């Protein structure tokens, strides 16, 4: 069994040097700038914006949406901007724009999203898992469009059939041959969405099969799980998603666990303060009304593992003002002002 201390290490993706191999995965309506900054503070070496189509990034749908998608901060670099393309032309336009703006350090192409809206009606994301040639054309177009390094994110198959898993691996190999500098594999098939247990053996197989760094994704909910995945698969790094949401400290805890075999747990008051910071970040970026709407939708994740969690979650969902949010922090998390 390898020494745990070796599991967390610096890594280079093409021209991008990362101080460690723990990455915040892209999450739709979750990995906005305020949350990314909380993860940075805890040591995430690379973060990702949520998936967005080239048209959304280019501001063709809404200028304010594009502004929020591309909001950035010097403390949040290197940053991967995730793109959900369908055809090369718009993808190229978006990549050229990203390179010109200087917002992104990496462009991550999404061949993973299984939702009916994305992979079905819109033929994006996981729809490409059964069409590796079209996916590789997109990667070639993105790589050729600018000096920005390109990474890809995919599922290990559309289904778990031998044919579908072969096609997905063909896509990953083709993407690497086309110049992608890293691959993240979410170790579930697209038709499993998020519900079944992730199959880390695929991550191990792809790590062997591909000549670029492979990041593993799936069921990285605790520091122990992250180290177990790194140990069992030998992959280059961990792409942490739900395990970080409402718990950005997981990045610190993974490093502590690797180095010392234990980690400092967070107190309810620390959870409460982070919940408040997340709320304040949302208000700064989106304004009072939308910030409150978002924290009511997503803030309940902070109430995991505290006494009275169910009541705290209800209080967050029912909050109607900034004062209500402060009261929740005080009453349920024990934050003192
Ligand atoms: C709410 C939510 C939104 C997500 N949005 C994206 C996304 O925009 N792009 C993407 O590549 N993956 C997305 N994912 C997938 C995650 O990045 C990750 O691969 C997946 O959740 C598996 O990791 P986990 O089981 O540790 O959560 C999303 C997952 C969740 C739960």
Unique ligands: flavin mononucleotide
Indicate the percent of residues in helices: 40-55%
3D shape = globular
Total number of helices: 14
Output the strand order for the largest sheet. Answer: 3-10-9-8-7-6-5-4
Helix-strand makeup class: alpha/beta
Taking the sheet with the most strands, its summary is: 8 strands, parallel
Number of separate strands: 10
Q: Can you offer a commentary on this structure?
A:
There is one protein chain. By secondary structure, this protein is of the alpha/beta class. The chain contains 14 helices and ten strands. It has an eight-stranded parallel β-sheet with strand order 3-10-9-8-7-6-5-4. α7 (162-177) links the parallel β7 (150-155) and β8 (182-186). α1 runs antiparallel to α11 (268-286) and α13 runs antiparallel to α14. The longest helix has 19 residues, at 268-286. Bound molecules: flavin mononucleotide. Residues 25-28, 30, 50-51, 82, 110, 112-113, 153, 186, 194, 198, 217-220, 241-243 line the site of flavin mononucleotide.
Chart the SSEs and their pairings:
Elements: E1 11-13, E2 16-18, E3 22-24, H1 33-41, E4 47-48, H2 54-58, H3 63-69, E5 79-83, H4 88-101, E6 106-111, H5 116-121, H6 132-145, E7 150-155, H7 162-177, E8 182-186, H8 200-209, E9 214-217, H9 223-233, E10 237-240, H10 250-260, H11 268-286, H12 288-298, H13 309-318, H14 322-333
Parallel strand pairs: 3-10, 4-5, 5-6, 6-7, 7-8, 8-9, 9-10
Antiparallel strand pairs: 1-2
The structure holds flavin mononucleotide.
């Amino acid at each position: 069994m390898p020494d745990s201390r070796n599991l967390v290490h610096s890594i280079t993706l093409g021209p991008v040097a990362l101080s460690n191999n723990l990455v915040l995965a892209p999450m739709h309506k979750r990995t906005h700038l305020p949350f990314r900054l909380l993860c940075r503070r805890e040591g995430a070496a690379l973060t990702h914006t949520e998936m967005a189509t080239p048209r959304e990034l280019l501001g063709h749908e809404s200028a304010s949406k594009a502004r929020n998608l591309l909001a950035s901060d010097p403390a949040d670099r290197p940053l991967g901007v995730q793109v959900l393309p369908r055809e090369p032309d718009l993808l190229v336009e978006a990549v050229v724009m990203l390179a010109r703006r200087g917002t992104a350090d990496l462009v991550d192409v999404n061949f993973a999203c299984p939702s009916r809206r994305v992979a079905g009606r819109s033929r994006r994301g996981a729809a490409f898992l059964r069409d590796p040639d079209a996916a590789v054309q997109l990667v070639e177009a993105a790589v050729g469009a600018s000096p920005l390094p390109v990474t890809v994110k995919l599922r290990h198959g559309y289904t778990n059939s031998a044919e579908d898993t072969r096609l997905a691996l063909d896509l990953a190999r083709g993407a690497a041959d086309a110049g992608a500098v890293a691959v993240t594999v979410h170790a579930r098939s697209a038709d499993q969405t998020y519900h079944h247990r992730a199959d880390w053996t695929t991550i191990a197989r792809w790590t062997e099969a591909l000549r670029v760094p492979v990041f593993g994704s799936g069921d990285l909910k605790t520091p122990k799980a992250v180290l177990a995945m790194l140990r069992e698969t030998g992959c280059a790094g961990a792409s942490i998603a739900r395990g970080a949401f409402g718990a950005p400290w997981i990045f610190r805890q993974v490093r502590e666990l690797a180095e010392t075999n234990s980690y400092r747990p967070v107190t309810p008051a620390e959870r409460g303060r982070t919940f408040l910071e997340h709320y304040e970040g949302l208000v700064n970026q989106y304004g009072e009304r939308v910030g409150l709407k978002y924290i009511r939708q997503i803030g309940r994740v902070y109430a995991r593992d505290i006494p009275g969690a169910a009541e705290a979650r209800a209080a967050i969902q029912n909050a109607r003002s900034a004062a209500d949010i402060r009261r929740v922090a005080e009453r349920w998390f024990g934050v003192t002002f």
